[in-house]
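Input sequence (361 aa), recorded before submission:
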Amino acid sequence: METKKILNTIINADCIKTMNEMEEKSIDVIFADPPYNMQLGEMLLRPDNSVVNGVSEEWDSFESLSAYDEYTKQWLSAAHRVLKDNGTIWVIGSYHNIFRVGYILQNLGFWILNDVVWSKTNPMPNFKGTRFTNAHETMIWAVKNPKAKYTFNYEAMKALNDDTQMRSIWEIPICTGKERLKNENGEKLHPTQKPEALLYRVLLASTKPGDIVLDPFFGTGTTGAMAKKMGRNFIGIERDAEYIKGAEKRIAEIKKINDEALEYTLKKKQPRVPFGMVIERGMLSPGDKLSDFAEKHFAVIRADGSIKGENTEGSIHQVGAAAQNLSACNGWEYWFFKDKNRNLVCIDELRKQLRTELYGE
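Predicted structure, token format:
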């Protein structure tokens, strides 16, 4: 099955058979929301005696754990086949299945990068009061081998999180309101529809515009909707025609973000400039004094580019860290010198001048 002919379509078929017919190593990222095998076993009632609509569909029912394991092994093997060598796979699950999935995934040679906890800010209560409220699901993020050069948009994730490193616990509400697809009777079209915010973050973290994202358990199309919105290509595989109908309508109404807005926050790796080069070029001289901005700590520049502080000596970074009782410090941003007009100037301005002179940056 030629990949370019099935881009941005939903295939109404079994995912194992379909993936085994697809081009090998043709997919950049797989997001899989497989059956959890979480049958309730009996009717569950709320305190007001209304029925809790759990997952009772045939597709989530297996005869035994061994049958579920065999099914998991088959679809993960097919996924391994179509995933590019530098591609990644996300698999989401609950306590019912995620540990079994992770075990099988590792047995097939996948290398786990992270387990990400989706912490639900509005989880369904535990109505019986017999155990803790199940307020999270787990996503396993993995590659085909430890040396894979996979996509991780670190700076974009950091920017999304108020310029703080994104952690592996994501607080996102479950799918509710207008986002939840309904059938003709006003009931949930799919019992485990994932929130768009979750897939937005997954795709922002691990894909680039134009990448091909495969969802072998497409359901009502959250992956496809977010892929279209973010300028990615998708391939969906789904057995249920009603789910496909809902997904197609949903995706058709999605508008793509314009190309300019899709640009990531990227931190360009700039050429390294040693502080000693500042001395060599005569921009500062041995014996000149440096201070912090508040002029509480001082240091003297030495001929080899090291500096001598009040109680220690070493690089601009080491002495800056010692002055603040910290383990690390960016000395370029910490130290200042006085120009001819006795104004304090950050030594990083000298580094910028050198980069422009040497590299045109």
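Checked by second reader. The chain has eleven helices and 14 strands.
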